Amino acid sequence: MHILFLSDNFPPEVNAPASRTFEHCREWVKAGHQVTVVTGAPNFPKGEVFEGYRNRLWQTETLSGIRVIRVWTYITANEGFAKRTLDYLSFMVTSFLASLFIRRVDIVVGTSPQFFTVCAAYAVSVAKWIPWVFELRDLWPESIRAVGAMKESKALDFLEKVELFLYRRANAVVSVTNAFRDNLIKRGINGDKIHVITNGVDSERFQPREKDSDLLASLNLQDKFVAGYIGTHGMAHALETLLDAADKLRSHPNGDRYRILLLGDGARKRELVEQAHSRGLDNVIFIDSVSKDEVVRYWSILDVSIIHLRKTELFTTVIPSKLFECMGMGIPVLHGVKGESAEIVEREGVGIVFEPENAEMLCDSLVSLADNPARFEQYQRQGCTAAQKYDRSALALKMLALIEETAEKK
Questions:
Q1: 275-333 pLDDT tens trace
Q2: Do residues 217 and 143 both lie within one domain?
Q3: Domains identified in the chain, total number
C-alpha cells in the first residue's frame, strides 16, 4: 500500500507534529508499506530555513525509508496571526499541487493542528478518487479563540463550518484525545468513524539515562535541583507563570538550590527573556531550540519537568506529547494542565498536578518534591512503567491497521 501523508512539520523540526508523523511513518515503512510525506522546508519555530535546506518549489530526500517531498511555502516565524495564515495557505496550495504528481497512491492522511493542511488532503482525495484520514491534533479554529489570537468574527465562524465539513467528509478521523472525540460527537459527527490514538514516546530515544555531566558543568548546574520546560514558548503556554514561580523561589529558604530552565523558541520567547532580565531572575536559564538528538541531553539534566498551558476550558481536552517523553525518561512531572492529561498524571502516578497559572502552587509543588526523595523516586519508577503503555511503535501499528481498513473500504 502507498500512503501519502501531508504534514506542515517534519524532521529535522522537533515539535510534536513532526515527531509523531516521522515516528508513525517510520513504523509503516518497517511494516512493508510505501510512504510519501509532503512537507515544507524545515523552519519551525523561528521562520528560518534550517542549514542544508532551501525553500524551493520541489526537493526530495529519503529519511528512514520515507520518501520526503519538500515544497515551497511562505515562511514566517511562529508569531503574528496574518503571516502564519499565509504560511498555512501557501502550504495548502503547494502540497496539493505536488500531490497530483505522486503516482499510485492508495490513501492520503492530513494532520492538523492548522486544518488548511487537511483541506489539501481532502482535495487530493477528491482529485485521485482515494479515501482520506483526518488526523486531529488540535481543535482548530477553537484554539484561536482560546488564546485570543483573533477576535470573534464571521471569518472564524466560516472556518468552523469548514472544519465541520472536513470531519463529515473524512473516511476516518484519528483523534489524539478522548476529549476531542467527545467534542466532535456533541457537534454531530458520527462517532463510529472517530478513533482515538494518543501521542506516545519513542522508547528507543527517550529512556532513563545519567545526567550529562558536561552539560551540567557548562550551565553551572552542579548540585542544583533543576526544573525544566522544554517546548514552544507561545501564547498558549503562559510561561510567565514559571517566571513568577522563579521569583517566589528566590525568597524561599535554601532558594539558591533551585533553577528553572526553559528550552525552545516561539512567539513569546523574546518577551519572556526581557521579563526575566528586568526582574533580575538569575535562577532562570533560557536555551534556544536544539536538534532532536541534542534535546535528550537536556532532558537528562532535569530533575523534574514542568508542563504548562493557559487556564482555559479548551486546554482541558489536550494531552501534551512531552508528558510521554517525561515518562520514558523517568522524569517526574509538575503538570499545570487540567483535564484528560491531568487524569493520566494522577492515574499513572508520575507527578504532581497544580492549577494552571498558579505560580504559588507550582513553587510549593517543586519544593515539596525536592524535599521528599522517596516520593521523587517513586514518580521516577512509575514513569518508566507507565511509558510502556504509550510506546510509539505500538500506537503507529494501531493507526496503520485503521488506515489499511479504511483503504480496503474504497
A1: 999 999 999 999 999 988 899 999 999 999 999 999 988 889 899 999 999 999 999 99
A2: no
A3: 2
Contact 76, 102 (CB under 8 A): no
Q: Does residue 131 have a cis peptide bond before it, meaning omega lies within 30 degrees of 0?
A: no
Residue 38 in grid coordinates = 509532503
Burial class (CB in 10 A: 0-12, 13-18, 19+), 154: exposed
Q: List, as one string, the DSSP characters of 262-283.
A: EE---TTHHHHHHHHHHTT-TT
Query: Cα–Cα distance between 24 and 62 in angstroms, integer?
Result: 15
Q: How many other C-beta atoms are found inside a 10 Å radius of the C-beta of residue 408? A: 11
Q: What is the CATH number of the domain that holds 232?
A: 3.40.50.2000
Nearest in space to 58 (alpha carbons), one of 38, 44, 72? 72
The DSSP element (H or E) to which 60 belongs, if any, is strand 58-63
Which residues on neighbouring strands pair with residue 230, listed in sequence order? 263
CB 252 within 8 A of CB 359: no
**What's the Cα-to-Cα distance from 22 to each of 12, 19, 173, 189, 256, rounded to whole Å?**
10, 5, 19, 28, 41
Determine, yes or no, domain membership for 208.
no
